[in-house]
Amino acid sequence: xxxxxxxxxxxxxxxxxxxGASMDWWEPEFCSSLVGRYVIRYDHRDTGDAPSYxxxxxxxxxxxxxxxxxxVLDEVGVAAAHVVxxxxxxxxxxxxxxxxxxxxxxxxAMSTSAGAGDEDLPRMSPALAEAFAALPEPxxxxxxxxVAYLVASQRMLAAEPFDEAEIRAIAAxxxxxxxxxxxxxxxxxxxxxxxxxxxxxxxxxxPTLVIHGDEDPLFHLPHGEAxxxxxxxxxxxxxxHTGHEFPRRNWPLVIPEILAVxxxxxx
Length: 267
Hints:
Elements: E1 2-5, E2 12-16, H1 28-33, E3 38-42, H2 62-75, E4 81-86, H3 88-99, E5 104-110, H4 126-134, H5 143-157, H6 164-177, H7 181-186, E6 208-213, H8 221-230, E7 235-239, H9 251-261
Parallel strand pairs: 2-3, 2-4, 4-5, 5-6, 6-7
Antiparallel strand pairs: 1-3
Helix pairs in contact: 2-3, 5-6
């Protein structure tokens, strides 16, 4: 499914979310706050009402997810957009910018990395790895159990204060819309790895904004700092007291930054 906000005559902003995340994780109120922009959000494969594949057998690659983003632009009649990606979506946005520069007007990379396995960048915190390993799988056919599982997962990734009510509300909408919640939470991690692109970051020429939490336990801050350092002219915005998350409390910091980088008069 594709959902749009604003006028198609305004500069287009394509929102790409992370692993296992339907478009519901881009909250409508956030999309509407990007005033003067034609905001586009969509469901990744295996999320929302997009095509679903058997758990652990995605039948598609990360490259296919990038092609999906371009297909979304085609469907809404947008030749080129300002691309905003978070986590896995930030990785997809980087490669989309590198491989299809004619489709991208600016890049915003949030809570993401181009060197997840690189020796010079910190790995996931051991405490987070242990916490995930200890989290039992829910009954995937029980929506309430899946929502509780997602809330617990998000709590591990977040910094304090954690707004459980906010996350529970989004998760409830996402889980209810998703055809197979087990597939949604497993299949993006099972896609074929297309290899590293970090060595290509210097090729990015569009205006770039890097947004990163200072307490991200999955991609510690040096991942965001590396992106900002290695993409020519990139601007780094560090979100205080923020983990691997995008809570409402950060909207007042993030929205003006996205509006600025997507202002075509600004470039």
